[in-house]
Specification:
The complex is a heterodimer of chains A (about 290) and B (about 270). Chain A is about 75% helix and about 0% strand. Chain A has about 290 residues and is mainly α. Chain A starts with about 20 loop residues before the first helix and ends in a 10-residue tail after the last helix. Chain B is built from eight helices and ten strands. Bound molecules: adenosine-5'-diphosphate and magnesium ion. Magnesium ion binds next to helix 1 of chain B.
């Protein structure tokens, strides 16, 4: 199970409060400094890309400048594809939101059940193990046949993509719940079933959240496959259409937008969870 | 003390426990345990490791089922864990996602007490274990000794008829341990719960208990764990561990324990 992220030890989950007066300033500078470290590599990559195109090292690759221009046009220009980027992003984000939401709603309770009940786990383990290796690309044609082409089949594919990481991490997290905590809850008056909610879920939460982050990432990954046929909007659709009319720079804009959207949605989810949890040490890690 | 008038908090009658492993192999950890604990009594179980102290405590807690005999608490035969028997574990077992106050309020919340009552209890036991200023901290931010105080407060807030403690101070440094032994005595005098306390330290048992029960044997010694000696302690609290009376009883208890150990152990204890 390569998706399973180990949660750090309990001690690492709490941020140390620094109290000296100079600390906030130093921390600010430190944070900026650390953020600045992320800049050189992408800039170098852009430069290399630019040079590679100008020198003709790679054929048929548009230069970064051309990609930037078409990105601007896509944002607010007047050409055939002009001013449609927002539309595509919204359409994709909506599908990812719905699909990932459904995946979590099914995978988390199922994972808790499978992690706690040997019976359920024995009944479903084989089934899950058989389905899991099937790539989402292989599901796509079947879904088109069953669900029909269009937004629905894209969402189903997104559900499948998000489902397994969340499920497997939830199972792992639930299995790792210290028996001691269940004993503690039992002797304080929590019944077996209530303990699922009161103890198992919070104790497994760091793993569940790790699974959700991976799952959300996978949802964006399958977007291009899911939106290939039968939908007009969405970043996957944009890439497909651009490909059909050989607009390579548009393909690249679509790709980069998916990367950015995936990154931002991860940040958004993490921040939202952190707000909802109001400082409770359930997320694991510091980010 | 006349047994006729005291009510019993625990009645352990001819209790035995045999663990059954996955492959059908079985380990007889306890046999023929008889022990009555009066309401409000502080009883310590001492004995070498492996003699079944934890097993006995877990039977009373309801975490394990007895294999033979009869085990009654105030509400009748013990059947599974319940809030009438609070447990303090050696490794604390606090909920890491709840604050100190949240951990203490957990039991009262589970019982659905009104929120004013929950707040009052939380405040009372926070004060009792001297952690008022740490109410909003999380367990991982506290030292071991502080975490164990939270665990004690968490159980007391639930008003248990019996308090079960399995080497609760065993993982702490000796200064912290002494402080907590002292606090526990004070708390016990204040709240008067029935306590069954497991330790392998004779001195700790003598410092705390009304009655010290010495256990011996265990599967590793070829005989199931059993009770070999019992000592009533009537010294006034808080006890002075350097007092001659204290050490007279301590000597007697140590003799009772060492008489049960194989010869080489006696020899090494005598030389050490
Ligand atoms: N869950 C278990 N399964 C099998 N054997 C056990 C189990 N728990 C304890 N034992 C055995 O029972 C004996 C008594 O253990 P324990 O009650 O932990 O002793 P103590 O607390 O006095 O050190 C030991 O030999 C131990 O190996
Ligand atoms: Mg033990």
């Amino acid at each position: 199970m390569t998706e399973v992220l180990n949660s750090p030890p309990a001690a690492a989950r709490t941020t140390v409060r620094t109290t000296t007066a100079a600390a906030p300033v130093r921390r600010h500078v430190g944070r900026l400094g650390r953020a600045a470290l992320a800049v050189p590599v992408p800039v170098l990559a852009l430069a290399l890309w630019h040079v590679a195109v100008r020198q003709g090292w790679v054929a048929n690759l548009p230069a970064p400048g051309d990609v930037g221009e078409s990105a601007l046009d896509l944002l607010q220009g007047g050409s055939a594809f002009g001013s449609t980027l927002g539309l595509h992003i919204l359409a994709s984000a909506e599908r990812v939101g719905i699909g990932f939401g459904i995946a979590c709603l099914v995978a988390v309770p199922l994972g808790v059940l499978m992690g706690r009940s040997a019976l359920v786990s024995r009944m479903l383990d084989l089934m899950i193990s058989l389905l899991r290796p099937i790539p989402v690309t292989a599901w796509a044609p079947l879904m088109v046949v069953i669900v029909g082409i269009g937004s629905k089949s894209a969402i189903v594919l997104i559900v499948i993509a998000g489902f397994f990481p969340v499920l497997l991490n939830t199972i792992a997290g639930v299995k790792a719940v210290p028996p001691r905590l269940l004993e503690a809850a039992a002797m304080l008056g929590t019944g077996r079933h209530r303990a699922l909610w009161k103890v198992v879920l919070p104790a497994a939460a760091p793993n569940v959240f790790a699974g959700m982050r991976i799952g959300l990432g996978f949802c964006w990954v399958v977007l291009v496959v899911g939106e290939t046929v039968g939908v007009e909007t969405g970043l996957g659709a944009l890439i497909t259409q651009a490909w059909q009319v050989s607009r390579t720079e548009l393909i690249i804009v679509g790709m980069l937008t998916i990367g950015l959207a995936g990154y931002l949605s991860d940040r958004f989810m993490t921040l939202t969870l952190r707000l909802l949890l109001r400082g409770r040490p359930l997320l694991g890690g510091h980010r | 003390m006349t047994d006729a008038v005291t009510t019993l908090a625990l009645r352990i009658k001819d209790v035995g426990k045999t663990y059954t492993g996955h492959r059908g192999n079985s380990v007889e950890a306890l046999r023929g345990i008889n022990l009555d604990v009066a309401e409000g009594e502080f009883v310590c179980l001492v004995g070498a490791s492996g003699c079944g102290k934890s097993t006995l405590l877990r039977l009373v807690a309801g975490f394990e089922d007895i294999s033979s005999g009869q085990l009654d608490a105030r509400n009748g035969p013990v059947c599974g864990p319940g809030p009438d028997r609070g447990v303090v574990f050696q490794d604390y077992g606090l909920f890491p996602w709840l604050t100190v106050a949240g951990n203490i309020a957990y039991g009262p919340r589970q019982r659905g007490l009104p929120s004013a009552e929950i707040a009052a209890r939380t405040a009372r036991y926070l004060t009792m274990v001297q952690l008022d200023s740490f109410a909003d901290r999380y367990p991982s931010e506290l030292s071991g000794g502080m975490q164990q105080r939270v665990a004690i407060a968490r159980v007391l807030a639930n008003d248990p008829a019996v308090l079960l403690m399995d080497e609760p101070f065993g993982a702490l440094d000796s200064l912290t341990r002494e402080r907590l032994q002292y606090s526990l005595t004070e708390i016990w005098q204040q709240v008067r719960p029935t306590v069954l306390f497991v330790t392998h330290s004779v001195e700790e048992a003598l410092f705390l208990a009304d009655r010290v029960i010495v256990m011996s044997g265990g599967p590793n010694h070829g005989v199931p764990g059993h009770i070999v000696h019992e000592e009533r302690v009537t010294l006034a609290r808080p006890r002075d561990v350097t007092a001659p009376e204290f050490n007279t009883i301590k000597r007697r208890l140590l003799d009772a324990i060492h008489a049960q150990l194989p010869d080489f152990a006696v020899a090494s204890v005598a030389s050490g």
